[in-house]
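Researcher: Go.
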Amino acid sequence: MDNLVLASVVRELAAAWTGAVFEELRQDSGTRFRLRFASGGSNALIAVSVRAEAPWIGSPSRRWEGPRWSPDPFVGVASRALAGRRVERVLKLPVERSLTIGFTGDLALVVELAPHGGNLVLLEEGRVVAALRKSRATASRLAAGAVYQPRPSPPRGVDPFGLSAEEIDAIVAASRRAGEPDLEILRRDLRGVGTEGASLVLAEAEASGETLGTVLERRLARAAAGEGRPCLVAPERPWEAVTRGSFDARFRLLPWEPLPGVTVVVDAGGPAATAGLYHECAEAAEQLGARLRSLAGLTRAEASRAEAGERRAREDASGFARGQELGRKAEALLAGLSRASRRGASVLVPDPYAPDGEPVEIEAPPGVPLTRIAEDLFGKQRRARRGAEAAARRAEAMRARSEALGGVLVRLEGAASEADASEIESALRALGVPVGLARSARQARAQVAVGRPSLPGVRVVTSRDGFTILVGQTGRDNDRLTFKIAAPEDVWLHASGVPGAHVVIRTAERGGAVPPRATLEEAARLAAWFSDARGNAVADVQWTRRKNVRRARGAAPGTVLVKRFEVLRVRPGPIDPREGVP
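Model: Structure:
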């Protein structure tokens, strides 16, 4: 977070929070937290992000819509220690990207916001009680009981706050002689100015004809006096730009208003609100980009698997040639029964397909009638033909899947917006790729309100007969699905003899009746599809009541023992395109 913007935010928070009562610290995600204070009958809410690339603090611009997050132990420690405490001070050193919130009882919460150093630290009497993050580099500095020390200052640069214009100009002149450009001098040789502040100083100096030292001294003095407010350069409405995928470097958070001529400058209602708006939009835009990149990588991987599956199926289909050979031997055996001559474990008979009648050698165990051997050969021929036909169908399905995934990749090349990402996720789900299953807390609450449970880690499918089918994802998800979610009378399925997903058909809500055969087969196909038997032509799937399934003691999560079961033989099939996801 820009140091000069942070200074403005801290001044605003100091005015608003001093005397307020701390209510709670909540965790929205792995890197985002919310602090709530009560003051004068109203609540004040602030968001803190300790994301490595760009930590920040500011007022949230919209309600948090991410999935629910299990809080870090630090959250509980800090909440219990600070609950009901009154804020006595909010402080920030001029060049440090951190702030300290002091509470009654000699407690304090330090918010560190340096890039790749975002952290929350709880202090008592100036000593560390707990820290959100501890690395090797901070182990001694943030050890419990140690006297708190701020992050070490960078070795380069001087503190410009309090320097005169002449002193700043002397530093600039010395660095210019060393060949450094003015922007780098202001950014690196004068700590706390930042990239955006340096750019504004350069533009103002060029427009006014003043020296860099004169402009910077004046601007730092105004900032210290609370004059000037951060603003957001926004060519279009920020959140709309995020949704369309057009939030980019044109959007800039500045420590004060630029010179006239900038198209649109937004003040969201104060430093904290403006900073929160910019950083939330920037994070959302980055997450959208990461989402699209992830979809592209997943689609390429699925396309590669489909191509490999088609190659394997084509190779399997070529095995029909061996089936023809078996039939040819069987026909030769029956045609040459009277002229057959045994030789140990084989028999020689004339080959009716050979022009010269050259004999063909056929395996024939002693004591087995030749007619029985011929029947066995015909049976193997029929099985080989059926296998080849199934392999050909599988190869065609993999070819169609590969082409469909190629079409998705083409769409991904031009994808930029949230709508594009959602449409691509829908297309991938229709192809059996489990993506876009997570839903926001608000959506989850809405679905619970209409009777649809929120099941993180579980795919949800509706069978053609209207039964709900649940499919686990990881080993822990399988364990939770089987022993926490499924009822004893629900039907449980798993691919036989291979690792794979636990699948549950909800039947308890229908009186525990055995589901229709079609639903059983749909669920069995899913169990085979989400298992290591996915590439087989057919797979055996065990099914039983959930009450017959027990955890395997001492084994990894998801490993079970089945008391009694029946077996269905099915072709592995993808998830139904009509999938409903909580």
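Model: Residues 271-317 form the longest helix (47 residues).
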